[in-house]
């Protein structure tokens, strides 16, 4: 049986007799009655016929491109009926920890399009850098996008520590992605991971305490002050500009890893808790997140949050929760109320982790719907985050992405009945060869289905990039903070 080198594999492919001639006519018919992103591709000896909605026609051409990588101009005759399994098939680019310029982002978008990935979740703001121009608050980039010597692992480094995207850059990137059927979802962190923001505008933090842009990885206690009315006004002005820049349904507002030590000592936060009759600081975070979510809803936008934001009372079901770690009971309860989930488990989809932990086969074999969500239709998609503490440049970005991201794309696109995990590596090989001709080099083939011996070496190398004296001391400080959180609230970590 012919093994067609297609990733992700189509829902239905039937081989017919003969081969299309090199000059076979290509005809298209856009049909809005087709299911979103679906297409029909029929290759005969004299004609290549494509029908689908706008996105589906684009994806049919991606399928044709992959077939030509395998067969050249002499394509076997066949008929394909295809549609995605999930509506959300995403990749998260972290531009805060290390800044990649516009040209690099465009190259990443080309790779996403080749595998029918339709969402770019863009993590633009974190403790280590504020990377998007906001005209209302110029110091966010004047101060928040700049840091000096950094230490995220084995060596001190200066590469890609500074920089930001102008609004003109953003518009060009959004337009480029739109042509490739990719929606960009910006993320602004609320209320934690705010060191870069507070370095520029300390007045929206607790007690106006001075803060610096962070130069290491980890979790910090620099939060927006939820007790000040001006904090909400500040956030909404940023969101107003992001809404203009990113004309899509969803905006990510973070909500993870908010260590609340400063909130517990803040008169404004404690006053707000009493004023609202809230149980604790977790409830204060959820109140603030919901207030922002409602503001976005009034603007016609849907908020995405990390699952940490479920702690408190009940998150509205018209939020979308990105599931990464912990909070299983809260996620299950949210799903039972009709809430929707994006699957981004650290147990398979975090691409900053080494291949020793998650190689291609582990991603392909991962159970997308965990037992605690069985019987629900809560999961609307799958997404691979790639946090960039130890990703200094585009070459390392591609190394971590490829071919694990294509494996995730197959999980997100291909119907269960059409999946063949055992054939994935063979199907991907000719595509990988093409990517290498474009200067896009992923991990070596021996890492794709990694042996125990090589995995041990890979894990040792990974640990050496983390556990250095400077980094370990910082992590000890942060772990002490998180221990306080766990003791008080029993948070899953």
Please summarize the sheet with the most strands: 8 strands, parallel
Structural class: alpha/beta
CATH topology tier name of the largest domain = TIM Barrel
Give the termini distance in whole angstroms. Answer: 47 Å
Low-confidence stretches: none
The average pLDDT value, as a whole number, equals: 93
CATH homologous superfamily (4th level) name of the largest domain: Glycosidases
Cα shape: globular
* Whole-number total of structural domains: 2
CATH architecture assignment name of the largest domain = Alpha-Beta Barrel
Portion in strands = 15-25%
Report the C-alpha radius of gyration, rounded: 23 Å
Helix content: 25-40%
Question: Could you name the CATH class of the largest domain?
Answer: Alpha Beta
Q: Order of strands side by side in the largest beta sheet?
A: 10-7-6-15-14-13-12-11
According to DSSP, the number of beta strands is 15
Counting DSSP H or I runs of 4 or more residues, the number of helices is 16
Description:
Helices cover 37% and strands 16% of the residues. With 493 residues, the protein is of the alpha/beta class. It has two domains: 12-82, Chitobiase/beta-hexosaminidase domain 2-like (Chitobiase, domain 2), CATH 3.30.379; 88-424 and 437-489, Glycosidases (TIM Barrel). The protein has an eight-stranded parallel beta sheet with strand order 10-7-6-15-14-13-12-11. Strands 1-5-3-4-2 form a five-stranded mixed beta sheet, with helices on one face. A two-stranded antiparallel sheet has the order 8-9. Helix 2 packs parallel to helix 4 and helix 6 (229-245) crosses helix 9. The radius of gyration is 23 Å and the shape is globular.
């Amino acid at each position: 049986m012919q093994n067609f080198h297609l990733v992700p594999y189509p829902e239905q492919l039937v081989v017919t007799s003969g081969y299309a001639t090199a000059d076979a006519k290509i005809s298209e018919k856009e049909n809005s009655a087709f299911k979103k992103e679906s297409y029909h591709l029929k290759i005969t000896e004299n004609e290549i016929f494509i029908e689908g909605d706008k996105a589906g026609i684009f994806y049919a051409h991606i399928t044709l491109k992959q077939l030509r990588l395998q067969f050249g101009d002499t394509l076997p005759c066949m008929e394909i009926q295809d549609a995605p399994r999930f509506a959300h098939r995403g990749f998260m680019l972290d531009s805060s920890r290390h800044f990649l310029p516009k040209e690099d982002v465009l190259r990443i978008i080309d790779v996403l399009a080749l595998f029918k990935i339709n969402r770019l979740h863009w993590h633009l703001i974190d403790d280590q850098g504020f990377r998007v121009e906001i005209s209302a608050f110029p110091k966010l980039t004047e101060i928040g996008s700049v840091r000096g010597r950094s230490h995220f692992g084995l060596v001190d480094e200066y590469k890609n520590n500074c920089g930001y995207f102008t609004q003109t850059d953003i518009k060009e990137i959004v337009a480029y992605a739109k042509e490739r059927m990719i929606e960009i979802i910006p993320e602004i962190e609320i209320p934690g991971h705010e060191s870069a923001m507070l370095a520029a505008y300390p007045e929206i933090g607790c007690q106006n305490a001075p803060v610096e842009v962070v130069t290491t990885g980890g979790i910090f206690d620099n939060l927006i002050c939820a007790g000040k009315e001006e904090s909400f006004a500040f956030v909404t002005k940023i969101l107003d500009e992001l809404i203009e820049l990113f004309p899509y349904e969803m905006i990510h507002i973070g909500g993870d890893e908010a260590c609340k030590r400063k909130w517990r000592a803040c008169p404004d936060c404690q006053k707000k808790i009493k004023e609202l009759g809230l149980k604790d600081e977790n409830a204060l975070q959820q109140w603030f997140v919901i207030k922002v979510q409602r503001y976005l809803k009034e603007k016609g936008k849907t908020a995405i949050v990390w699952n940490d934001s479920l702690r408190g009372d009940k998150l509205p079901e018209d939020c979308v929760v990105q599931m990464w770690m912990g909070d299983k009971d809260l996620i299950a309860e949210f799903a039972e109320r009709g809430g929707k989930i994006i699957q981004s488990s650290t147990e398979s989809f975090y691409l900053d982790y080494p291949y020793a932990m998650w190689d291609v086969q582990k991603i392909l074999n991962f159970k997308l719907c965990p037992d605690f969500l069985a019987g629900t239709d809560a999961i609307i998609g799958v997404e691979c985050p790639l946090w960039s503490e130890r990703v200094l440049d585009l070459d390392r970005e591609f190394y971590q992405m490829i071919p694990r991201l294509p494996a995730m794309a197959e999980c997100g696109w291909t119907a269960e009945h059409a999946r063949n995990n055992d054939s994935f590596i063979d199907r991907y090989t000719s595509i990988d060869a093409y990517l290498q001709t474009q200067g896009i080099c992923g991990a070596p083939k021996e890492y794709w289905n990694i042996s125990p011996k090589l995995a041990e070496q890979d894990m040792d190398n990974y640990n050496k990039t983390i556990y250095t004296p400077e980094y370990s001391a910082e992590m000890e400080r942060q772990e002490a903070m998180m221990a306080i959180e766990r003791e008080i609230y029993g948070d899953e970590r």
